[in-house]
Write a structure and sequence with these properties.
Layout: H1 2-35, E1 41-47, H2 52-66, E2 82-87, H3 98-107, H4 129-135, E3 139-144, H5 151-154, H6 166-175, E4 180-183, H7 199-205, E5 209-211, H8 214-219, E6 227-230, H9 253-264, E7 270-276, H10 278-284, H11 288-311, E8 316-322, E9 325-326, E10 330-331, H12 352-366, H13 374-385, H14 394-408, H15 418-424, H16 429-442, E11 444-445, E12 451-452, E13 456-462, E14 470-473, H17 475-485
Parallel strand pairs: 1-7, 1-8, 2-14, 3-4, 3-7, 4-6, 5-6
Antiparallel strand pairs: 2-13, 8-13, 9-12, 10-11
């Protein structure tokens, strides 16, 4: 009897969920009809892993650089006139991943974690907004500072049962009708083993102009045709460098956004999705300084869209949101109680990735666990993270020394002892411990190395902006965008 009641509750819950989403779509269309707002140019900016904490920590940091008085220096997008809260759960969990979250925003439908534009049963596909727009004559662009075959960008052009099928995603990119891809590389260009036909070469055969150096990128002009632009410098997993590590002559997310606007601009209209994916990666590693740097760079990319909107105020909509929160980031740490010192984060010289590659990994290659000396690494660690070992408590000193020993023994696997994972999350023990100590002194805490289920903030500026006020689900972002664009959305799931 209990099982029957549970089944009935699930059925009623699913029915209510469908009715809610349908009602949300109809309400969006009704509001747009009432205001007669139509946007010809639409930007969707997605801060991967970015919820209120990531935005707020960046604003507090900016304030700390300018004043000793507590407060916020607001980012450009956090001052947009329309603001809402957005739930991010998927069909399998309260805590989503980027594949299901990307699918929700791209197609307006829920699916399982790890799935891109397939229904939860993985038997039917969903139709992303980019396909509707191409059919309607719009130009479409997809930009990300992580690899372009990663889950969020893939949600806007690919359909796979598993986000891990990255070579399949790469080939779908090559065969797509997207007009502009820009940013990171392709992690699986030739398959997992590197023995498959190149997706980049397939893209070129399909009419894409491929560029991967600064001069060729800057030389791109309207009329170049379809473009696949990969950054000349790729740092980790075929992603662009963290902003905190980016050299002055390296291209930025803002550069790829500006070029997208230049190439896509046309009388018929365009849609440009821009993802800042390494906010998420930094928060997975509990590296607040790297997260803040990339959030600032994200704001600078959004500013390029705002410049365009100022020139086309009656035809442009800009929406900024996150796909989920990462890290359980908090402004407040038990050890600092009601105090914060965000200015301390400015002493960190680079990201956790750069520290590993330039300092820790070379040392590990040159030493064994038996002849490694903590005293060798200490000055470099202090200088890089702006820490003073002498000022640490005895417990903290022991923690740092233990983490160095564990790094030298390569105790970084997720399958290792439970206490190792809980302390370091599969990252280099020495590096993540230094990040934690730096963050804790600033007054930042973390609860996880994974995602959390808290809502994210959504911001909007331009035609139809009022639709994005309120509290709604991530699937409604699709319906709100479609309504503003005047796109008629198919009610049924597309057949495979």
């Amino acid at each position: 009897m209990k099982q029957n009641r549970t089944a009935l509750a699930l059925i009623l819950g699913c029915t209510l969920l469908v009715q809610t989403f349908a009602g949300g779509a109809q309400e969006a269309e009704k509001k747009v009809d009432e205001t007669k707002a139509r946007a010809k140019y639409v930007f969707l900016f997605i801060g991967d892993g970015m919820a209120v904490s990531q935005v707020a920590s960046t604003e507090v940091f900016s304030r700390a650089q300018a004043s000793k008085d507590p407060g916020w220096n607001k980012l450009g997008f956090s001052q947009f006139p329309a603001q809402g809260l957005t739930t991010t759960y998927d069909a399998s969990s309260i805590i989503t991943d980027s594949a299901s979250a990307g699918t929700a925003m791209a197609s307006g439908k829920k699916t399982m974690s790890g799935v891109i534009n397939y229904d939860p049963s993985k038997t039917s596909t969903y139709k992303p907004i980019t396909e509707y727009l191409k059919e309607a004559g719009y130009k479409v662009g997809v930009v990300s500072n992580v690899s372009l075959d990663h889950a969020t960008p893939a949600s806007f052009y690919a359909k796979v049962k598993s986000r891990g099928d990255m070579y399949d995603i790469c080939m779908q990119l090559a065969e797509s009708n997207v007009d502009y891809f820009g940013g990171g590389g392709l992690a699986r260009d030739k398959g997992k083993k590197g023995d498959q036909p190149s997706a980049i070469e397939a893209a070129q055969r399909n009419g894409f102009t491929f560029v991967n150096d600064n001069a060729s990128f800057m030389a791109l002009k309207p009329g170049s045709g379809k473009v696949l632009a990969v950054n000349a410098v790729l740092q980790d997993s075929f992603a662009m460098p963290y902003e905190i590590d980016r050299a002055d002559n390296d291209l930025s997310l803002a550069d790829y956004t500006a070029k997208g606007i230049e190439l896509l601009d046309n009388p018929e209209g365009f849609f440009l999705m821009v993802e800042s994916g390494k906010i998420d990666w930094a928060c997975h590693a509990n590296d607040a300084a790297a997260s803040i740097g990339d959030t600032i760079a994200f704001d600078e990319a959004i500013a390029k869209a705002v410049e365009f909107a100022n020139a086309h105020p009656d035809d442009t909509l800009i929406v900024v949101t996150g796909d989920h929160e990462t890290g359980g980031m908090s402004i407040g740490f038990a050890g600092t109680k009601y105090s914060t010192a965000f200015d301390l984060l400015s002493k960190q010289k680079g990201s956790y990735v750069r520290f590993n590659r330039e300092i820790l990994e070379p040392y590990k290659k040159a030493h064994t666990p038996d002849n490694a000396r903590f005293e060798d690494m200490l000055p470099k660690a202090e200088e890089y993270f702006g820490l003073s070992f002498a000022e640490l408590s005895d417990a903290e000193k022991e923690m740092v020394q233990r983490s160095f020993s564990r790094s030298m023994k390569n105790e970084v696997e997720r399958a290792a002892q439970e206490d190792v994972y809980l302390l370091y999350g599969g990252y280099e023990p020495f590096t993540v411990t230094l990040c934690h100590l730096t963050n804790q002194r600033a007054g930042i805490g973390w609860t996880t190395y994974s995602h959390t289920g808290v809502p994210v903030a959504t911001y909007a500026l331009g035609q139809g902006q009022e639709l994005f006020d309120g509290y709604y689900d991530n699937t409604e972002i699709f319906h709100k965008l479609a309504a503003v664009l005047g796109i008629s959305v198919e009610a049924a799931v597309a057949a495979k």
